[in-house]
Amino acid sequence: MAVTKILARKGRLDVGVRYVLNGDKTQEQILTARLNCDPDREVRQMLETKRDYGKEDGVQYYHMIQSFRPGEITPELALEIAKEFASEHLPGYQTVIGVHVDKEHIHAVRPDRAMRKAV
């Protein structure tokens, strides 16, 4: 059973995205996914969405973490669970997902935009 945390972050979005996609933690970004944004453009797209909605101050993103007990799950399954969670609970949001395997416990992390992307 995963433990899930949702943390509001006021720090720089690019720092959060870099942390999530860190190749040392994600098997050289093999264990990553993006929803409603493009690789290598995700930060720019998220910042443009913030600007479009006039939300450039305050909370910059929500940092979500799903942690699993050691041996409970494979990294690939953790990625699928994180993608399903985001698709079901955050439809239309710009999301970057990374499964970190640098610790004894596997955990999926993602910075999610505070608002839906304009459709």
Explain how this protein is built.
It contains three helices and five strands. The chain is an alpha+beta fold. A hairpin with a 6-residue loop joins strand 4 and strand 5 (107-116). The radius of gyration is 14 Å and the shape is globular.
Outline:
The chain has 119 residues and is α+β, with helices and mostly antiparallel strands. 29% of the residues lie in helices and 30% in strands. The longest helix has 15 residues, at 75-89.
Helix and strand arrangement:
Elements: E1 3-9, H1 13-21, E2 32-35, H2 42-52, E3 61-67, H3 75-89, E4 93-100, E5 107-116
Antiparallel strand pairs: 1-3, 2-4, 3-5, 4-5
Number of helices: 3
Overall spatial form: globular
**Strand content range:** 25-35%
Compute the CA-based radius of gyration.
14 Å
Query: Any low-confidence stretches, pLDDT <50, length ≥5?
Result: none
Number of strands: 5
- Order of strands, widest sheet: 1-3-5-4-2
Helical proportion, percent range: 25-40%
Q: Which class of secondary structure composition applies to the elements?
A: alpha+beta
- What are the secondary-structure elements, in order, as H or E? EHEHEHEE
